[in-house]
Structure formats: C-alpha cells, structure tokens
Amino acid sequence: MSTPETLPTETSDAREAPPARLKTTGRAGAGPGGGRKFARVAVLAICVLWMVPAFGLLVSSFRSSDAVSTTGWWTALYRFYDLDQWTLDNYVEVLEGGMGTAFVNSLVVAIPSTIIPILLAAFAAYAFSWMDFPGRETLFILVVALLVVPLHVAFIPLLRVYGGLGVTGTFASLWLAHTGFGMPLAVYLLRNYMSSLPREVIESAKVDGASHYQTFWRLMIPLSVPALAAFAIFQFLWTWNDLLVALVFLGTTEEVQVVTVALQGLIGSRGQDWHLLTAAAFITMTVPLIVFFSLQRYFVRGLTAGSVKG
After folding, report:
1. CB atoms inside a 10 Å sphere around CB 115
2. What backbone torsions phi and psi does residue 258 show, to the nearest 5 degrees?
3. How far is 89 from 210, CA to CA, in rounded Å?
4. To bridge 190 with a disulfide, which of 94, 125, 178, 258 should be the other Cys (CB 3.0-4.6 Å)?
5. What average pLDDT does the segment 229-250 reach?
C-alpha cells in the first residue's frame, strides 16, 4: 500500500513578508494627530478671545470710578500694585441701591416662566409622539411654524388683551408672554426627544394596563430629563436676560422692576455710572451660571436627541 506524499514544509524564506507601510507624504503634523492639535489650539484661542471682554468687565468692577473713567482696564494688569484703584464700593453701592428687590423680582418672573411652558409642552410633545388623532402632523407643523413669528408684532395685541384682563403691570403678564413664545421651541425639542425613545417601553406599559396619564408621568417624564433640562436652560436664560418684554408689560417702577431694568437705570443719564454697571452685571450673572453648570450634562444630549434615527 502506497503511503501519501508528505507536503513540503515551509521555510522561513518562503513565508509571506508583511506588507510594507505606505509612506505618507506632506508636511509634518498634517495627519489626524496634527489636525486634532490644530483644532484644540483654535478652540482655545476662540475661548480666550471670548473671555477677554468678560475679564475686562470683572477687572473694571473692582476699580474706582476715577480709574474707570480715566484709564482702560488693561492698565490695571501692569499697575496692580496701585492699591488706590481697587475698591469694593461698587458692589456695596449696587447691593444697597435696590438691586436686591430686582433680583427677587427676576426670580419671580423667570422660575414660573420656565416651569409653565415645560409642563404644557411636555403634555403636547407626548400627544404628538405617542397618541393617534386626526391632523396630528399638520398641527405639529403649525406649532413649530410659530417659531418664525417675531415677538415684537404681538406687543400691541397682547397689551390690549392684558388691559381687558387687568393684568398689565403684573408678573402674570410676563408669565403668559414668555409661556406663549417659549412653547413652540419646547414642543419641538421635547417631541423630537420623546419620539426617539424605544417603542417597546410604551407598548409594555400598555400591556400592563397603564393609561396615557400614568405612562406620561411614570415613564416619559423620567426618561425625558435631558430634553427638559436643555429647554430649561434656554428658557431661564431668555427670561432672566429679557429687557424689552419686561419694559413693555411691567414698566420701571421699583416694586416690579427686574434686574435688566435695574441695570439699565444704573448707567445714568450720560453713562457716568459705568463702574456700577460692571459690578451689577457680575451680581446678576451668578444665577444663570449656577443654572447652566447644574444642567450642562444634559444640554447636548437633550438638543441632539432625535436627530439621528437608528
């Protein structure tokens, strides 16, 4: 009986050599690593340029009125040893001048003007996402189309309506105005987020016998925290920094004026009190910064939800 032929063994010379690496051409740093470094440097430069005015405002808030009116804020950087130009009187004068009342009034305006549209828009977004009714898509398009309506065209009609209701000059007028003009964006963001949630979660709740009300409060609201937080940042910053709507519907009386109106009054008739304006600006910046940094982890996730369908 013949034996099978043995195959020749491979030698080290016959082994396939690894493919040679392609030589990259071009300048050094033009690859992915160089691109990332360039992007980081560019972002850092933009951040520095963006922070220069705020840093100048901070420096000016601690300088005396004579120093602010005679020299630029950058001169304090190389004359920091001159203690005569540094003072805390600007902050003391601002806090003793009625800014505390305006601070509280802004909170009274901003907090309800943020919570009310979020609650109403969450109900509407759930209906547009998971409830079937005639004209759902058409109604959603009409709601989103209200984003292009300027706020200014509604001043006169709203003033007439508020005059008939007797709410002109009260905080309720601002709550209604900010709620009405904040609803389209809120509905758009929340609907995109809720529609991107897994359908299996909603169907399992229906199988367990949960009503729409129970599904909304026990599932949609906890799962939609990123989108709710993203809109809360937008709405709170908008209402806190608003000047025009507050001037039109509230006025400038000390009992109801908000921080933006109080800041406008600190400038003076000829801009002579600019040093007080810098100190007051940093006092009013504390609350928006606290809100933003508290909710920033949800910000990007809430805005980009629903932009990519898997």
Report:
1. 15
2. -100, 180
3. 61
4. 125
5. 89
3-state secondary structure of 63: strand
How many other CB atoms are found less than 10 A from the CB of residue 112? 17
How many CB atoms are closer than 10 A to CB 218?
Answer: 12
Beta carbons within 8 Å of 249's beta carbon, 6+ residues apart: 158, 159, 162, 168, 169, 173, 174, 177
Q: How many CA atoms lie within 13 A of 196 on its CB side?
A: 20
Nearest CA to 248 among 166, 181, 154, 147? 154
Residues 6+ apart with CB under 8 A from 2: none
Residue 138 tokens read as: 């058409």
Across the strands, what pairs with 86?
A: 63
Tokens 């740093």 belong to residue: 29
- The answer to pTM > 0.85 is no
Distance between CA atoms of residues 130 and 216, nearest Å: 10
**Could you tell me how far CA 231 lies from the centroid of its own chain?**
7
Residue 96 Cα to chain centre, angstroms: 31
Q: How far is CA 298 from CA 33, 155, 282, in A?
A: 29, 34, 25
Helices (H), the chain: 32-61, 65-70, 75-78, 89-94, 100-130, 136-145, 155-165, 171-195, 199-207, 212-215, 221-223, 225-240, 244-249, 259-266, 274-284, 286-304
